[in-house]
Amino acid sequence: MADQEQTGRRIQVANARPEDAGRGLARLPLAVMAQLQLSEGDVIEIVGKRNTPARVVRPYKEDEGLDVLRLDGLQRANAGVGSGDFVQISKAEPRAAQRVVFAPAQNNLRLQGNPEALKRVFFQRPLAAGDVVATAGQQQVPPGDMPPQLRQMLAAPAYALQEIRLVVVSTTPKGIVHIDADTEVELRAEYEEPRESRRADVTYDDVGGMAETIDQLREMVELPLRYPELFERLGVDPPKGVLLHGPPGTGKTRLARAVANESEAEFFLINGPEIMGSAYGESEKKLREIFEEAAKAAPSILFIDEIDSIAPKRGNVTGETEKRLVAQLLTLMDGLEPRTNLVVIAATNRPEAIDEALRRPGRFDREIVVGVPDERGRREILGIHTRGMPLGDRVDLTELARMTYGFVGADLAALTREAAIEAVRRFMPRLNLEEGTIPADVLEELSVTREDFMSAIKR
Ligand code: ADP
Fold first, then answer.
1. What pLDDT, on a 0 to 100 scale, did the predictor assign at position 404?
2. Is residue 152 over pLDDT 60?
3. N or C terminus: fewer CB in 10 A for the chain?
4. Are 40 and 147 spatial neighbours (Cβ–Cβ below 8 Å)?
5. 303 to each of 25, 221, 258, how far by Cα in Å?
6. How confident is the model over 299-320, as a mean pLDDT?
7. Cα 100 to ligand 1 centroid, rounded to whole Å
8. Which secondary structure element, helix H or strand E, spans residue 13, and what is its range?
9. pLDDT for residue 141 is more than 50
10. Using CA atoms, how far apart are residues 45 and 53, in angstroms rounded to an integer?
């Protein structure tokens, strides 16, 4: 049996880097590629709780020697796995599709489809019904000896000014297919609920410059939520409360949401200032109710934004409401059973301003600093917010990252939005607004240029 060709294999899943997100790639160790007789550009089927196809590419340099398969957040959702889980992979031969039907996976989006443009975006991409895919990833085509279909796929044009997520509603034939020149592509206007609607929303791919923070949170929050039995077996109590501190706009809320989605947990949000200021006794009642609701829906993450406003140092406050709210919060935290499978994540800009009692063991006893991003972080965040954006040749995100010292994630997101608006302004005269659709040739030329970014920075 020794020389029998191996056709499938088990492998552990890990997160891809944000710049890979939305491209449908599977980064595999060279040794595994050799073992399964795969070349770069081949297609594999990934089997977790569900199946999804991906195109094989070489591993990141620093992964050499590691036995992991890197997938992005959408692919992990498509395969029904989280990072750390094992999947079975095997070589697949996609068939040319006669027909593929897409629908928007975001219910805030009505699409007036240009199926031809969509066809170009997903040209040669392996697809299967039920998958959620994104119109992203046309940047940074790696040079070198890459098979033409892979090169084409990575260089796919953008579809709109921002990334759009779509559900593959059906394919003919069924199974793993790819779109070629003869495929008929239909885009439905109505929203189609994805199988994992949460993970079609925000994942770790969507928070930039936070690789280490994500690792810490995965250990502290995601693993206990996903594998409660494991922690119970080992006799360790997972943390009940984690305190994130950092300036506003650094991505704390987005990060908490991503952790919830990746943990397949429900997400509840309490906004500190909002819960204050209700009538006598109302604030505590609201707090109790949300805790109850979150416990009932467990596994869940309860996120308390601006916790300093509801739990200031009791010595410093004169208001009765604050005093009672702090006391209520302490009671609720102490009342949480480890097996409730609920983690409370609180965010603050001023950790020194919150009541010390909250930071005692069994309450918010873990702390993670979410800092202002450095240049690399800014580069990654810019990559995230320009995903799916058609960028002009001279746009250099590294240069933009260098120029935006002091910007936090929210500032960088605003900057890319501004730049896109600049581009739309330039194109306005060429649009026939009465027609309601953008002619394909105009859409093709629409791109956000270096000048658009420069004007946006000046604002
Ligand atoms: P915070 O909770 O720290 O105030 P948010 O998570 O509300 O910050 O961030 C606001 C917006 O700014 C996000 O929706 C996102 O568009 C953008 N943003 C902030 N930080 C990041 C980040 N690290 N990566 C990507 N986007 C970010």
1. 97
2. no
3. N
4. yes
5. 32, 12, 12
6. 85
7. 35
8. strand 8-15
9. no
10. 4
Largest CA distance in the chain: 78
**Angle, alpha carbons 368-371-373 (nearest 5°):** 135
User: Is 248 a pocket residue for ligand 1 (Cβ < 6 Å)?
Assistant: yes
Instruction: Identify which has the larger pLDDT, 5 or 355.
Output: 355
Assigned token pair, 370: 């979410």
Residues 298, 304: contact at Cβ < 8 Å?
no
* Cα 401 to ligand 1 centre (Å): 16
For residue 252 and ligand 1, the question of a CB distance below 6 A is answered with yes
Q: Which residues of 40-56 are buried (b: 16+ CB within 10 A; e: fewer)?
A: bbbbbbbbbebbbbbbb
State the closest ligand 1 atom to the C-alpha of 246, by its place in the atom list counted from 1. Answer: 3
Q: At 171, which helix (H) or strand (E)?
A: strand 165-172
Residues 6 or more apart from 197 whose CB is under 8 A from it?
105
**Would you say the CB of residue 249 lies under 6 angstroms from ligand 1?**
yes
Q: Which of 19, 163, 254, 259 to mutate for ligand 1's pocket (most ligand atoms within 8 Å of CB)?
A: 254
Integer angstrom CA distances of residue 42 from 126, 349, 400: 10, 47, 35
Task: Please provide residue 82's backbone torsions phi and psi, each rounded to the nearest 5 degrees.
Answer: -115, 170
Which of the four pLDDT bands, split at 50, 70 and 90, describes residue 145?
Answer: low
- Which residue's CA is the nearest one to ligand 1's atom 25? 207
Q: Pull the structure tokens for residue 366.
A: 């873990």
Report how far residue 109's alpha carbon sits from residue 164's, in angstroms, rounded to the nearest whole number: 9
Instruction: Please give the distance, rounded to the nearest whole angstrom, from the Cα atom of residue 118 to the centre of ligand 1.
Output: 29
ipTM: 0.99
Instruction: Determine the atom of ligand 1 nearest the C-alpha atom of 207.
Output: 24
392 lines ligand 1 (CB under 6 A): no
pLDDT bracket for residue 266 (50, 70, 90): very high
Confidence band of 274 (pLDDT split at 50, 70, 90): confident
**Is any ligand 1 atom within 6 A of the Cβ of residue 383?**
no
Is there a contact between 253 and 307 (Cβ–Cβ < 8 Å)?
Answer: no
422 or 46: whose pLDDT is higher?
46
CB of 76 closer than 6 A to ligand 1? no
Ligand 1 binding pocket includes 257 (Cβ within 6 Å): no
Whole-model pTM: value is 0.85
The predicted pLDDT at position 317 comes to 67
